[in-house]
Design brief:
Elements (H helix, E strand, L loop, with lengths): L1 H33 L6 E9 L4 E10 L6 E9 L8 E6 L13 E10 L2 E8 L2 E5 L2 E15 L3 E16 L2 E19 L9 E12 L2 E15 L3 E15 L2 H4 L3 E16 H5 L3 H7 L1 E12 L2 E11 L4 E9 L3 H4 L14 E3 L2 E9 L6 E3 L2 E2 L7
Antiparallel strand pairs: 1-2, 2-3, 3-4, 4-5, 5-6, 6-8, 7-8, 8-9, 9-10, 10-11, 11-12, 12-13, 13-14, 14-15, 15-16, 16-17, 17-19, 18-19, 19-20, 20-21
Organism: Campylobacter taeniopygiae
Protein name: DUF945 domain-containing protein
Keywords: Membrane, Transmembrane, Transmembrane helix
């Protein structure tokens, strides 16, 4: 009989040990979440209250650029391994103008669950639907999922939005079914998520519109690769369907394409400037694009573009070949307003080809088919 009595004692002892162990694990998760070395923001006012079945923590994230961006994160940890979740919490709203539209002034809530060899951090944002004299904003079913390792270093990210609209005065942007995924070649600390890392990202959306410019669908697969310590290379591959570009002010009509396929490399990017989102410094160092293939589909005809482009503060250069399976004037009727486009193409077998070279430091600056190009006025 005494042997049977020891069984519940052992079970109770093991349960208590597991509770304390989970408490240690959860405290380690908190330390990894708040271990910040990012130069863009700081974490302050960290509080942690360890409990038996549950532990609580909260801290504040502030920007370092005096933008008055501040959000409070509150977390409740579950010290029971068999629970459906490890932790759950919320983010306070950092945008004062949204306070009246958000329940309990919370921007998002989140939950951390256990995954194989790591954790899954999922944030669900509150829906936003506001309209005032400043414009309209709609955000519906927006969420972020971050798959991490045991040290809370990100391995994969997924960001989804069912519908988004932003309108101000005469400008309006809308988009549906936005989906962004990123896989890192090596786990990344959460504080470094905004900095470029080697890996692959995928971006997809449907029904995009900016004023009178429209895209029915878009997909891009982008590969990030470092060239040594100082240079970054990004390889863009993807497609877009049913594109409408508002060019009425320049061409007196819209520019339409049935589909666009692209394969473009952005090469030799200064890593430090990209890390800091310093567009001016990137432009100063130079933007180098290799157009492996850019195919425009219009009226069942193909327009193929390849070549390279270099843009910098001191020198702009381009060497591009454009080939079409149909006479350009038949594809683009707006060319008639500028004397027709056929004059800039040479027929070679069944193709109409233009070879364009430009160098702002040369004289002449622009050549088409090895001939000096005089002038075309699109204003």
């Amino acid at each position: 009989m005494k042997k049977w009595l020891i069984i519940p004692i052992i079970i109770g002892f093991v349960f208590i040990i597991h509770i304390f162990y989970m408490g240690y694990i959860n405290e380690n998760i908190l330390n990894n979440l708040t271990n910040n070395k990012n130069s863009h923001y700081e974490i302050t006012d960290l509080n942690f209250k360890k409990g038996f079945l549950h532990s609580k923590a909260d801290f504040i994230i502030k920007d370092k650029f005096n933008l008055n961006f501040e959000t409070k994160i509150s977390i409740i940890f579950n010290n029971n391994y068999f629970s459906k979740y490890i932790a759950q919490g919320n983010l306070s709203n950092p945008f004062y103008f949204l306070d009246q539209y958000l329940k309990d002034k919370e921007l998002a809530n989140f939950i951390i669950t256990s995954e194989q060899k790591g954790f899954n951090l999922r944030l669900k944002f509150q829906d936003i639907n506001l309209s005032n004299e400043g414009g309209d904003t709609l955000l519906k079913n927006a969420s972020i999922s971050i798959l991490t390792n045991k040290n809370m270093q990100a391995k994969d990210i997924c960001f989804k939005v069912d519908e988004a609209q932003f309108a101000q005065f005469y400008s309006k942007l809308s988009m549906q079914n936005f989906n962004y995924k990123q896989h890192f070649n090596h786990p990344v600390p959460l504080s470094d998520l905004l900095q470029p890392k080697e890996g692959v990202e995928e971006l997809q959306f449907h029904s995009f519109a900016f004023n009178n410019n429209k895209i029915a669908s878009f997909y891009s697969k982008n590969t990030f690769h470092f060239q040594g310590k100082d240079k970054l290379k990004v390889h863009f591959q993807g497609k877009a369907d049913d594109i409408v570009l508002d060019m009425n002010s320049k061409l007196y009509q819209n520019l339409n394409f049935d589909k666009i396929d692209f394969d473009i490399i952005w090469d030799e990017i200064a890593r430090n400037s990209y890390d800091k989102f310093d567009i001016n410094f990137i432009a100063k160092e130079g933007l180098k694009f290799d157009i492996i293939d850019l195919t425009l589909y219009k009226d069942n005809q193909n327009i193929d573009i390849d070549g390279n482009v270099f843009i910098s503060d001191k020198n702009d250069k381009a060497n591009i070949q454009i080939s079409s399976t149909e006479e350009p004037d038949k594809l683009f009727s707006w060319g008639q307003f500028f004397g027709g486009l056929n004059q800039y193409f040479i027929k070679n077998n069944d193709l109409f080809i233009m070879n364009l070279s430009y160098d702002n430091l040369s004289n002449p600056q622009l050549k088409i088919n090895d001939n000096q190009f005089s002038h075309i006025d699109l204003n």
